[in-house]
Design a protein that fits this description.
Order of helices and strands: EHEHEHEHEEHEHHEEH
CATH superfamily: Spore Coat Polysaccharide Biosynthesis Protein SpsA, Chain A
Pfam families: Glycos_transf_2 (PF00535)
Strand order of the largest sheet: 3-2-1-4-7-5-8
Mean pLDDT: 88
CATH class: Alpha Beta
Helix content: 25-40%
Radius of gyration: 17 Å
Largest sheet: 7 strands, mixed
Number of strands: 9
Shape: globular
Protein name: Polyprenol monophosphomannose synthase
Keywords: Glycosyltransferase, Transferase
Low-confidence stretches: none
InterPro entries: DPM1-like, Glyco_trans_2-like, Nucleotide-diphossugar_trans
Structural class: alpha/beta
Organism: Nibrella viscosa
Number of helices: 8
Distance between the termini: 24 Å
Length: about 260
């Protein structure tokens, strides 16, 4: 079985893509990388194809036609990785808002500490966000409060997009459709993991807003998260979650490597 793969969705990330790929491959722990590109007109996919000659067998590219959404990009990437036998699968942004050095800590939280899912959390120890305007910080933080209130899920950062999953987690939850495509996708994935009884932990990180490229956040995506959470909770009453063999729990935050 192959060990670890990072799924990185992209749309117009030409300013960041080479730097993020090189940074990941410079880490002391080895990770393969899959770029899922949604037809970026700026040449993102072309840059990745050029780099594949340098990182043969470890840098992969999945090209899709058009901008199909963050959630579907991750799902396509996860299915690609599961079909090839990877044991640990990661979500990460391409814009350095997630520090690649923290990949090692997320990996250790699952591979050494026994978590099924490790979430890179901005809010497990205060508010660790850099370069966001105060309005966006408050919106993100209270979105977490709202999600915990509606769902009962004990996750401080339910909209986080920096995550490590064991392969058996994704094999389980992807048996049923994941409906949402934006920030609600991140909530739905964690909610499904929790409902199935997988162990989750939050690893404290510092989130730094992008300095290059354009944010993909929109009002439509935020509304999907607000109203989708209620719909998701109601629908969960009519679904039967068969728990895995592991004992369900949320374990303590991981402090160090």
């Amino acid at each position: 079985m192959k060990e670890s793969l990072i799924v990185i969705p992209t749309f117009n990330e030409i300013e960041n893509i080479e730097a993020i790929i090189r940074k990941v491959f410079s880490l002391p722990t080895h990770f393969d990388v899959l770029i899922v590109d949604d037809g970026s007109p700026d040449g993102t996919a072309r840059c990745v194809r050029m780099l594949q000659d340098e990182f043969v067998g470890h840098l992969h590219l999945l090209e899709r036609r058009g901008k199909l959404g963050l959630g579907t990009a991750y799902i396509d990437g996860f299915k690609w990785a599961l079909a090839r036998g990877y044991r640990y699968l990661f979500e990460m942004d391409a814009d350095f808002s997630h520090n690649p050095d923290d990949l090692v800590r997320l990996y250790h939280a699952c591979a050494r500490e026994g978590a099924d899912v490790a979430v890179g959390s901005r809010y497990i120890k205060g508010v660790n966000v850099v370069n966001w305007p105060m309005g966006r910080v408050l919106m993100s933080y209270f979105a977490g409060v709202y999600v915990r209130f509606i769902t009962g899920m004990p996750i401080m950062d339910p909209t986080a997009g920096f995550i490590c999953y064991r392969s058996e987690v994704l094999e389980t939850i992807l048996q049923n459709p994941i409906r949402f495509v934006g920030y609600a996708f991140q909530i739905e994935m964690k909610f499904s993991c929790w409902k199935y009884g997988f162990t989750l932990t939050e690893v404290p990180i510092i989130f730094t807003d992008r300095t290059k490229g354009v944010s993909k956040m929109s009002t439509r995506i935020f509304k999907e998260a607000v109203f989708g959470v209620i719909q998701m909770k109601i629908q969960s009453f009519f679904r039967h979650y068969i728990p895995p063999k592991r004992t369900a729990d949320v374990i303590a935050p991981v402090e160090t490597v």
